[in-house]
Amino acid sequence: RVNGNGGNGKGDGVAGPHRHSLERSDEIKKNSVQRWVAQRDRETKKAQKLPLTRASGAALATAKKHSKDGDLKLYAAPFSQRVWIALEAKGLAYQYCETDPYRRPAPTPLLEANPRGLVPALRQGEWACAESAVVLEYLEDLDSRVPLYPSDARLKANCRLWIDHINARIVPSFFALLQAQDLAQQGTWTERLQNHITSLVLAADERVR
Ligand SMILES: N[C@@H](CCC(=O)N[C@@H](CS)C(=O)NCC(=O)O)C(=O)O
């Protein structure tokens, strides 16, 4: 039994000379396996504890950039991706109001913007609107400096066809998969979701595939 890479002090893949007794070597390996298992358990616990309603990573950085009070307010949780992406793509000034729609009682500002208590919801002054597909259309009408639709009527119809595909097929199978309790159901919904995503990707211009 020899020491592994680095044992010769060069880190060149060449094993070094024996430094430990077999018992000591076993103990070191056992300790490192135990440390690895403990670290993995800590990470799993942390991931389980992470509230699903909080942005993290790059999303958190974007959320922070839009935390200042603003006239256009987006009440959202990390699932509210479409509307959030549209606001970013259009470069609109907006306030990101992170909202936990599962909190009970539901947060008052969310209920004021959407009496159904669902995110995403948009508020602009005294006016408010919800349902992501409707909010997206509103944002397009509100500001067309960076349009999300092409101007050609046929291309636009084609976009609407695939938006319908997303609303009617991708989103429902995604939620069905999230809710599926047993492995067989999860398998069925995973396959359906993948097929629906594949159809969308295959229909896309090959430059964006
Ligand atoms: N069709 C709606 C769905 C909105 C929706 O179901 N939002 C979920 C989060 S993805 C929610 O707010 N759930 C809170 C609840 O059910 O209490 C849309 O596209 O905006």
Task: Write up this protein.
The chain is an alpha+beta fold and 209 residues long. It contains seven helices and four strands; from the N terminus they run H-H-E-H-E-H-E-E-H-H-H. Strands 2-1-3-4 form a four-stranded mixed beta sheet. The chain is elongated and about 75 Å long. The two termini are 50 Å apart. The model has no long low-confidence stretch (mean pLDDT 90). It binds glutathione (GSH). Residues 79, 101-102, 117-120, 131-132 line the site of glutathione.
What's the number of extended β-strand segments?
4
Main sheet specs: 4 strands, mixed
List the bound ligands: glutathione
The CATH superfamily of the largest domain is known as Glutaredoxin
Compute the number of structural domains.
3
Q: Radius of gyration, rounded?
A: 25 Å
